[in-house]
Fold:
Amino acid sequence: MDKKKKDTEKLLEGLDSFESLIPDTVLEYYLMKNGVVCKDPKVKKLIGLVAQKHISDVASDALQFNALTTGTVQETSRATLTSEDICNALSERGVNIRKPPYFV
Structure:
């Protein structure tokens, strides 16, 4: 329990120097849009860190799906991710963004 407390304190101290890739105005907009009222800047930075990690994981998974479908690993050139790759990556995380079959 003491180690968890030390790790939490270390994380909160590190948030002061953390600069998120998601701008604060964008983060505040989506928090407000979803009804989240948060005055603590550390909590906002922590939410930004979690969102950034989620985006990074989804992009990494989508790149792996792209490599599976194309059969090549593109290390030197840029890969073009399709919406199908992103759909597959998100569906692994329980997020369904596919159109219903009656729209197709």
